Amino acid sequence: MRDWNLQGRNRDERLARAAGLADGKRVATADARALLEAVLEPGDRVCLEGNNQKQADFLARTLASVDPARVNGLHMVQSVLALPEHLDVFERGIAAKLDFSFSGPQGARLARMVADGRIAIGAIHTYLELFGRYFVDLTPRVSLVAAQAADAAGNLYTGPNTEDTPVIVEATAFKRGIVIAQVNELVDSVPRVDIPGGWVDFVIQSPTPHYIEPLFTRDPAQISEIQVLMAMMAIKGIYAEYGVQRLNHGIGFDTAAIELLLPTYAESLGLKGKICRHWALNPHPALIPAIEAGFVESVHSFGSELGMEAYIRARPDVFFTGADGSMRSNRAMCQAAGHYACDLFIGSTLQIDLAGNSSTATLGRIAGFGGAPNMGADARGRRHASPAWLKAGREAREGGGQMPRGQKLVVQMVETFREHMQPAFVERLDAWELAESAGMELPPVMIYGDDVTHILTEEGIANLLLCRTAEEREQAIRGVAGYTPVGRGRDRRMVENLRDRGVIRRAEDLGIDKRMATRDLLAARSVKDLVRASGGLYDPPKRFRNW
Amino acid sequence: METLTYEYRGGRPVNSPPPSVLVGVVGSGNLEVLVEPAPLGGLCRVEVQTAAVGFGATWQAVLDDVFARHPLADVRISINDVGATPAVVGLRLDQALDAFAGGTQP
C-alpha cells in the first residue's frame, strides 16, 4: 500500500531531531546553528527570507556557519540576494543551486561565482513568478523568516515590513515544511497577528534587530533640472493626457521628481483629483508633499520605508494599517495590485534598444529584475475598464478592425546620456553578451519592447502606441534619443513627420515653458523640507540627515 | 580645457534686447551661459570653453538644433562648461535664449 504522507512523516522526523532544542516553540539564540543542523537535510529547498528591505540577517549568518559535512547541496529559493551571507552559503558548499528575483548589491559577486561554477542558477524570476512557483514546483522544505516580535504560541508580528513573509510561510507551512522565525523580541502578546502561530514551528530571538535597508528614500537635493523638465512632460504629456488615476512609480530620482511636482506643477494645471489618486507604491518620503496637498487617496505598499512609521500611523486613511496603527505591507499582494489594478507604470532603466526593449543588465553583473517586469507589462488577464486603459488600447488598435480592448501604459523614463556620457540608447543591449557569458537561455530583458507604450527623455515623448510599423517605432525611439549615436542616426524627415502626427511630442509641443524647469518647482528641495512637510512626523535615517 | 567657436547666419536680431542674460552655474556636470547683444554683422557667435575635450561634433549637433529653435542675429553666446550632458546644455541654452528674446511666462 502506497504511503501518501511521506512529507508529513519526514517533517515529524525533522521535528523529533530538534525536540531537545526547543522550549515550546522557542529556541535559545545560542542553539540556532544546532537547530538548523537538526532540521535541514542535504539537497533541501530552502527559502532564506531576503526582501528588498527586511533581512533575516541572523538566520543568514547562522546558515552560513553550519557544518557543510552535515548540510550541503541546498537549493535556495529566495526573492532577493542582499547580504554577503546569501552568497557565502554557496562559497562554503552549503548550497549549490539558486532560484531568485533580484540581487542588486550582490550582482557583481554573483556573476563571478556563476562564472566559476560555484552557483547553478535555475532562473531569474519576477517576484510574482517566483512566489507562484513556491506553490507549484519550488515549494520550500524549510523557510527562515524575520519578524519584529513573537509570542509563546509562535504568533508573529512583522510590523510595517511584512513584505514577503506571508507568501513564504503559507507555501511552506501548508506543504508540511518547517518554518523558523528570527524575531527582534519575545513578548507576552503581539500587537497584531501577521502570521498565525500555528504556521510557525520555531522562534529564535536574534541578538540584534533585523536589518532594514532604506531603499526608497531619494534626497530631493539631488534632483536635477533635467529631471524636473522630464517630470513636467510626464505630468502634462502622459498623466493629464490619459487621466491616470491608478499607478506605480519605479525607484529613482526621475520618478521622485514627478512626486514632488504634483503639489506645484500638476496643481497649477488643475489636475488635483484628476490624476494620481491611487497608488501601488512603497511609502516614498518624496510622496509626502502630494499626500499633504490632498492629491493622494490611497497607497498600498510592497514593504515599508525606514523613518516613515510615525507619518504612516498618522495617515490611516491613506495607508493600509493594522488595528495596532502600524502599516501592513505585502509584496505579493501589492505586485498583483500593481499588475492588474494600475493603469500606468513608469520607471527608469539603463539601456533601451531600437525595438524599445529595456534592460538593467550590464556586463559582469547579474542583477535580476525585482518588481519592474510585473508592473511594466500589459496585464493580459485584465478585464475591467478605465478611461486611461481604454484610451491606450484605442491608440494601439485604431483602424485595425480588431476586437477592442484596453492596454496598460508602460513608460520608460531616461536621460539620453547616463553618467560618464554612457548612452541610454543602444543598437544592442549588453544583456545579449551577459546571456552568452553566463550561459542563460534568454537575454535578461527587464521590460520587453512590445509592452512599452511611451519613452520619455529630455528631448520629448515617443508614443509607441501610435506607431504602425517597426520602422516607425525605430524612428520614434531615435527621435527622442538625443545626441547619442542612436539619436544622431535618425531619419530627420521621418522624425518630423512623426512629430506632426503627435507620435513624438517635444516640451514645446506640449506647451511647456522650459524656463519653469528649475528646482524651484519642487515641492521639497531637501530631506529637511520633507520632514517639515510631514509636520515633523517623518524621521529620516541618519545618513539622509545633513543638518 | 578646450575652446570651440561656432557661427550661424540667417537669424533675426531681437528688438530692444536686455543688456545680458546669465543662467546656470559653474559646477561639475553643469555650465554657465551668458547671452549678450553684439554688433556681429548679422552673425550669432557661440564661444564654448569646455572641460571635456573631444566632443566638438556633439557641440556642433547640439548648437545646430539650438540655432534652429532660436534663429537670432547679432548675439554673442559665451558658454563655460564643466562637463554638462547635451541635455543640460540644450536646456540651459533654451532657458537663456527664451529669456533673452523676451518670451512670456505661461
UniProtKB/TrEMBL annotation, chain A:
The entry lists its GO molecular-function terms as: transferase activity
Q: Which Pfam family, an example, fits this chain?
A: Mal_decarbox_Al
Q: Give the protein name, as stated in the record.
A: Malonate decarboxylase alpha subunit
Instruction: Supply the Gene3D superfamilies for this chain.
Output: Glutaconate Coenzyme A-transferase
| SUPFAM superfamilies in UniProt | NagB/RpiA/CoA transferase-like
Q: Which InterPro entries match?
A: MadA (IPR005777), NagB/RpiA_transferase-like (IPR037171)
Organism, per UniProt? Azospirillum oryzae
Automatic annotation (TrEMBL), chain B:
- Report the subcellular localization: Cytoplasm
rRNA-binding: is it a keyword of this entry?
no
Keyword flag Cytoplasm: yes
Task: Give the record's GO CC terms.
Answer: cytoplasm
Give UniProt keywords alphabetically: Cytoplasm, Phosphoprotein
Maturation and modification: Covalently binds the prosthetic group of malonate decarboxylase.
| O-(phosphoribosyl dephospho-coenzyme A)serine carried by residues | 28
Matches recorded under Pfam families: ACP
Broad class of the protein's primary localization:
cytoplasm
Q: Which InterPro entries match?
A: Mal_deCO2ase/Cit_lyase_ACP, Malonate_deCO2ase_dsu
Mind telling me which HAMAP family this protein's record contains?
Answer: Malonate_deCO2ase_dsu (MF_00710)
The protein's name: Malonate decarboxylase acyl carrier protein
Species the sequence originates in: Azospirillum oryzae
Q: What is the lineage of its organism?
A: Bacteria, Pseudomonadati, Pseudomonadota, Alphaproteobacteria, Rhodospirillales
